[in-house]
Design a protein that fits this description.
There is one protein chain. The protein has about 350 residues and is an alpha/beta fold. The protein is built from 15 helices and 5 strands. Helix 12 (about 260-275) links the parallel strand 4 and strand 5 (about 280-285). The two termini are about 35 Å apart.
Length: about 350
């Protein structure tokens, strides 16, 4: 059944318990669609498995769409933007005003993601959370109240269009690599030094300072970090919460998702700590390096990036958008190639 014909499930985000209950009851992919796709792949004019990960991507798309063959007629890129109170500690060399300026740049079509979405034949929408009013400083209090966290999750949940075959998620928020690193440190029970990186241009001293800020936050919230949603609320951000909500909505609507790099993947990591298969409908677009924090998070969540070797570290959905043409190529091969019988090509003896 096409994903566009499936209405989103109710989102009773009136409490953290209600959100947790929704995260615990997630639909599986269609095994029948995956089997149908695999059967056709076996009949196409190529050696078995010779298209490598393209064949896996086709099965992944179709399984979550509950469709054989899969479709990519309606692809949506969603960028969530938010600001962070932890910027009071100067954890980024960029001023907080850049978040609003970049949102305006997105809206005027002047950013990299505008060009990449156009090339990928994808719709692009930008959602600024909480009017870009920053979260609280998470070194001294939770980043968000329960009400504000649930509201941000709801914004992301409601932002996913019903007519969507593939959802690509990106983010914009000065300081949000600090929030993402704090989430990872809390979820893995490690330290700020284990997860703090250079972000958008910190030097070694700045990175060490960032790690210290994260450790301060971890110590302040230590009594509350056993629960994944509390980790997201206390150490995350509005745009990260919206990313979590959109990913959850996509799962309920049978829409596969591409996550753009470290921040987006960290934002949804709490889901994987609530449900062992919570992120099976998602794919990671890229890792900037094989040894960096994105790669470490990918290994923690058992995810394999679609792209490699490009050194992407921009954010704003750029890697996710670049992955779309590869998925389009996978679907085109699956649907357009002739079978051995159709082409009158002899099969392997």
């Amino acid at each position: 059944m096409p994903s566009s014909s499936i209405p989103p499930q109710p989102a009773p985000f009136s409490s953290m318990l209600a959100l947790e209950a929704l995260c615990a009851d997630l639909p599986p992919p269609s095994l029948q669609a995956q089997q149908t796709i695999a059967q056709r792949e076996a009949e196409l004019t190529k050696p078995p498995g010779s298209l490598g990960h393209l064949e896996e991507m086709t099965r992944w798309l179709g399984g979550w769409q509950h469709s054989a063959p899969p479709r990519l007629e309606h692809v949506q890129v969603l960028i969530f933007a938010g600001n962070h109170g932890v910027m009071a500690h100067h954890v980024s060399p960029w001023p907080v005003e850049v978040t609003a300026q970049m949102v305006q740049n997105f809206e005027h079509g002047g950013a990299a993601i505008n060009q990449l979405a156009r090339v990928a034949q994808a719709e692009l929408a930008v959602v600024a959370l909480n009017n870009l009013v920053p979260t609280a400083d998470f070194t001294t209090s939770p980043a968000m109240t329960e009400q504000d966290f649930l509201a941000a999750v709801q914004v992301g949940f409601n932002a996913v269009p019903r007519a969507c075959d593939l959802l690509c998620l990106g983010e914009m928020g000065i300081g949000n690599t600090t929030a993402a690193s704090a989430l990872c440190a809390a979820l893995t029970r490690q330290s700020g030094a284990d997860w703090a990186g250079q972000g958008t241009g910190l030097d070694a001293a700045g990175t060490a300072h960032k790690a210290g800020v994260i450790d301060t936050a971890l110590q302040h919230h230590a009594a509350h970090l056993a629960h994944p949603l509390e980790v997201a609320r206390r150490l995350g951000g509005y745009e990260l919460a919206a990313t979590l909500g959109a990913t959850l909505a996509a799962r309920l609507m049978r829409i596969p998702v591409i996550l753009d790099g470290f921040v987006c993947t960290a934002a949804v990591a709490p889901l994987a700590h609530l449900h062992p298969n919570a992120l099976e409908h998602t794919a990671l677009s890229h890792c900037p390096t094989e040894t960096g924090h994105t790669a470490r998070l990918a290994r923690h969540l058992h995810m394999q990036p679609i792209l490699s070797g490009l050194g992407l570290r921009l954010g704003e959905g750029s890697g996710a958008a670049l992955a779309i043409p590869i998925l389009r190529a996978a679907v085109a091969c699956h649907t357009g190639m002739a079978t051995f019988a159709q082409a009158a090509v002899s099969e392997k003896a």
